[in-house]
Amino acid sequence: MEIKRDFYLEQLKIRKDNGMIKIITGIRRCGKSFLLFVLYKKYLLESGVDSNHIIEIALDGIENEELRDPKRCYQYIKNVMKDEGKYYLFLDEVQFMPRFEEVLNSLLRISNIDVYVTGSNSKFLSSDIITEFRGRGDEIRIYPLSFAEFYAVFDRDYDDAWNEYMIYGGLPQVVQFSVERQKAEYLKNIFANVYLKDVVERNKIQNVDEIGTLVDILASAIGAPTNPTKISHTFKSECGINYSNKTISNHIDYLTQSFLISKASRYDIKGRKYVGANLKYYFTDVGLRNARLNFRQQEPTHIMENIVYNELLVRGYNVDVGIVEVYAKSSEGKTIRKQLEVDFVVNQSSQRYYIQVAYDMASEEKQIQELNSLRNIPDSFKKIVILNGTKKPWRNDEGFVIMGMKYFLLNADSLEF
How far apart (Å, rounded) are the C-alpha atoms in residues 338 and 325? Predict the structure, then answer.
């Protein structure tokens, strides 16, 4: 089964021969290699590029272990280039090569080579690329399959597809399995033996059990504000373990750098400032999150929120969690300050949207809960509520756009309604 990744393929096409190093980043097993070595290679061949002018090196393969040596790799590439024609170099999982930035810097000096690299760790890539290449590195972030990509190859109806996606997520390999047990075992195994093992080995972590428990806590808390201090208290009170704030913060950074999780900062909408404490954490793939918890804690609202967050990132938006301060009277007549939450503050250039995600708004109480924060936002940017289900978008009496999850996920311009 060939899964199309047209959105990312187009990004590679428009960057072809632009004189920059194309850096394809994302969590391992999300489809970076397939995009480059299959889909983009097919495009190059159909565009008339000779197969001898495409150099492919997968550095995570044992067959290329010698090429992890930077000097050997550079010399190998030079030897393959037999003429003055244009060559296209694919370097897969470049973080396996020490001093890879020196190799890439050297390749930038060769006029007839167009370089594409993939990598699964942002610390080794984003920071080094920015420092070393001074604007000549062009990053393309790849995510697991969006729901639209998943649905395009799913052979049943929307409801079945949505239920499947909420449980098992969008890693491309999972879609290939037809048996649920296979999906579950695959996700549990790669989490422990690929993702977590990578983080532990790359960062030389000694307290392996603690970071495993930290992952479980973060998986349990998607959609809920938390911070290293709270987590540290949890370890001490429930596990009897002293796990310092600083160590927890570092370990969360390692998980973020490996693209396993993302941080969403809290933004005070009225005060127009970021609030440092109590970030929210979301998993790059909800299937991995669910597998880590052995497919328990299947709270649909939180999983929906995680899926919406990931979809917004795929579409290129900057996403924060919003808070709105309001004042109310207590039963004793005292003025009290409250903070209402807006699930997402979504920005792109001059555009801004405020988004609430709700399983339903069937009751009046639920409507008040979901809409009250939007009512208290003192500006005219679009306010959107995304509900579970298939309803087409409409505007309520207050001008808020309300749409079903199906419409939001399957229409790339859904926020423009």
Answer: 6
Other CB atoms within 10 A of residue 51 CB: 9
pLDDT of 131 > 70? The answer is no
Taking the complete model, does pTM exceed 0.85, yes or no?
A: yes
DSSP 256-291: HHTTSEEEEEEEETTTTEEEEEEEEEEES-HHHHHH
CB count in 10 Å sphere of residue 9: 15
Helix (H) or strand (E) holding 323: strand 318-329
Amino acid identity at 83? D
Among residues 151, 136, 64, which one has the least CA distance to residue 106? 136
* Residue written as token pair 């990509």: 149
Buried b (16+ CB within 10 A) or exposed e, 388-398: beeeebeeeee
Read off the pLDDT of each residue in 341-361 and give the average, rounded to a whole number. 95
DSSP code, position 239: I
Name the residue ranges covered by the structural domains of the chain: 6-141, 146-417
Q: What percent helix, strand, coil does the chain show, rounded to 5?
A: 45, 25, 30
Specify whether the backbone of 297 is left (phi greater than 0), alpha (psi in -120 to 50) or beta: left
Q: Hey, what are 19's tokens?
A: 């004189």
The CATH homologous superfamily for domain 6-141 is P-loop containing nucleotide triphosphate hydrolases (3.40.50.300)
